Amino acid sequence: MFGRLGMWLASLALLAAGASAALAEPLPRVLSDADAGRYARIFEAQRHGDWRTADRLIGGLQDRLLLGHVQFQRYMHPTAYRSAYAELHRWMKAHGDHPMAERLHALAQKRRIAGWKPLPGPWVARLELPAGVELPAARPATRAEAAESGRTGHDRAVLAQVRRNVLRDRMTVTENMLDGPRGQAMSPAAMAEARATLARGHLSKARFERALKQGDLARQGPGGGMRAGSFYAGLALWAMGRHAESHYRFAAAADTAPDHIGHMGGAADFWAARAALAAGRYAAVVPYLRRAASYSRDMYGLLAARQLADRGDFEWSPPGLTAAAVEALMAANPAIRRAIALTEAGQIARADLELRRLSRRADARGSALLMALSAALDAPATAYRIARIRLNSFGERHDPALFPLPDWQIDEGQPIGRALLLAVARRESGFDTRARSGRGASGLMQLMPRTADYIARKSGRPPPGRAALFDAEVSLELGQSYLAYLMTAVEPDGSLLHVLAAYNAGPGNVREWQRRFGDRDDPLLFLELMGSLQTRLFVRDVLAAYWIYRDRLGWETPTLGELAEGRWPFYSPPPRAAAPVLIGRGGIGAD
């Protein structure tokens, strides 16, 4: 019954050491060791509906700071407890600032009793720090994104119609519309974007001549549409074997100052370098590779850096966070004390919820400290969320928070290792254990319930049920099994591009793309021709994160070398003996 508790007790010293490693000074304690152990046993007992044991342990608590979390777990138990309205009302009055308050408030509204006092609503206190608190150091990002320029209402309506038509493969109708009065009323920038969208649609159907024509028409306009059209025209020429001609289109895409970088990233620069090499324009290769490498956390940037023998500039030293700064955070908001106490009790996911809720009301200085504290407390969802906001809003880069290493139990003896699992979880859920998509994909690994049941049965396990998918370790275990299954579900076995595409789009779509484009032995071209933008971005993002995680773990990156050389990257299991996590500066070097 208490298997998870045993694992927590065995690793308590390691958790404490890991938290302190991210601080310039020791992390202040909130709970005594005795209370931390009691809370851990309370949460475990209540998970199984053992209220008698839980009540006995609650009676022995010296610090009742986490009773709001304990009561929430009990009142919202899916099967073993039915909460009364009076209990829910009292909880909202006492604990309305807790991260689960919205869920409990919704239940209380359904069970409301006429004649009671008004039901208190959820609330979040702002996190504002006094001046003089030392903030963690940050590094500037290598590339910053600018905002996209505005469009007219007519432009937006026509572009929306173009996108719908392309999804339905109504290409000729769309081309006629753009040639007619509706197209003539568009701004040049919107027309260029519409033509580029058409070019992208033709590429996905292997209609390369028509893709080239629409891409070249897009090149006549300004802005992002011109850049995208040039890139898609270059891909069409490359797919037809006209590599030398493609260089001019890729170079036009790479040399155009974009209105917004969007999903292009370092792709245009990398393909311009690739085409320059194929065309014999050797002097242009290295400058384009250097520009591509400036997108240092993008797949194409990492490929370019590998070709330049550049190890990169990763900084894995944890953000400095003084004890005085933590004390200031605790004084500024009670949620900080609860979050630290929860980690001391082994409740990382609950601590993450506290910090994430608070981050939405933190000022710029508070969010920087919250990010560092989240990393120190092994709360990856909040650390990652804040790090992305600070990257996009302030141009700051915090590598340990952008690529966190949460202390989740992962079976390191399986072929699918920690680096690939974390890379997928980072893209799928942002490390949010409660994530759920509109289609029903749930948990860290965003598995559909039917997929999870199928994989569980194939592995000889009982179906997990929808609620279990929100358990981090269940989700990781099933994701690990699903990735292992996909390694042989699509051909060729173990091809990382095909496996990741199948994880996102399903094996059936990957087989269709193989049928359409599979005669070209060019993995990067296959990636760019995939019919789903979501899948292309998924593969690019997961590959980049996978290589970066292997670097952080001190492992070699053979698939990065394979793809940089134009070969299919085939997955290789991680080292059986886990390497120590690198602390300090890192880089993706030669294998």
TrEMBL record:
Entry keyword annotation includes Signal: yes
Signal peptide start-end: 1-24
Keywords, ordered alphabetically: Signal
MF annotations from Gene Ontology: hydrolase activity, hydrolyzing O-glycosyl compounds
Pfam family, one: SLT
Any one annotated GO CC term: periplasmic space
Sequence intervals crossing the membrane: none
UniProt domain Transglycosylase SLT: residue ranges: 418-522
UniProt keyword Kinase present: no
Record family assignment: Belongs to the virb1 family. Belongs to the transglycosylase Slt family.
Name of the molecule in the record: Transglycosylase SLT domain-containing protein
Organism: Minwuia thermotolerans
Upper taxonomic lineage: Bacteria, Pseudomonadati, Pseudomonadota, Alphaproteobacteria, Minwuiales
